[in-house]
Specification:
Aminopeptidase, alpha+beta, single chain
């Protein structure tokens, strides 16, 4: 996988986690945020949520001035696509062609978004999504497959983030969640039409 250059916004640096210790920090942050939000019912050993096929995962992180991970998001490449499998039987038939295209054309899954509570503001999330967008461009990934809390999904849509809902809302990881696909190459065009702040974050 190709890497991307770090980017700093308001005293926070966004980058690809390349060291084992930084990846562990990211995974522990995700665990602790999910535990605090009730997305997982009890702690896992070592505060690490088990993962399958770890080699497919890349962690993008937000680092504060003390070099602590304060936010993270995970991108996972290649099939199988866990999100599509989880929503099997609840996907929209009218989106079958888009789903098939995303699975066959260098798709990736986007998940494990977590931001430390004292840093939980939209700018960190935007920065992480921007990193995911830049990572997708660098690695020639055309479609992102995501599942997201229904309220967060609607909020980001209002801000101009372009995602196509592909299935019914389901109760997943503690909240009503939607599956969606992000057409990566359409993001700048859609964003500049709907929300200039998001378009600013997409500049690379």
């Amino acid at each position: 996988m190709k890497t991307i250059e770090p980017r700093s916004i308001t005293a926070v640096t966004f980058m690809v986690a390349t060291s084992a210790s930084m990846i562990k920090q990211a995974r522990r942050l995700c665990h602790d945020v999910y535990l605090g939000m009730g997305y997982i019912g009890s702690p896992y050993p070592f505060h690490l949520i088990p993962e399958d096929e770890t080699a497919r995962n890349t962690y993008l992180v937000a680092i504060d001035s003390a070099n602590n991970v304060v936010g993270t998001i995970r991108v996972s490449t290649g099939s199988p696509y866990k999100i599509i499998d989880t929503w099997n039987g609840h996907l929209f038939h009218q989106q079958a062609q888009l789903i098939s295209t995303a699975r066959c054309n260098q798709g990736f899954e986007l998940g494990a978004l977590a931001v430390r509570k004292d840093q939980a503001h939209l700018r960190i999330s935007w920065g992480l999504y921007n990193m995911a967008y830049r990572w997708a461009l660098a690695n020639h990934c055309d479609y992102g497959i995501i599942s997201m809390d229904q309220r967060a999904f609607r909020s980001l849509e209002m801000l101009g983030w372009f995602a196509i809902q592909i299935g019914e809302p389901m109760y997943y990881l503690g909240s009503m969640t939607l599956p969606a696909i992000l057409p990566i190459l359409e993001q700048p065009v859609m964003a500049v039409d709907k929300a200039k702040p998001w378009f600013h974050f997409l500049q690379v």
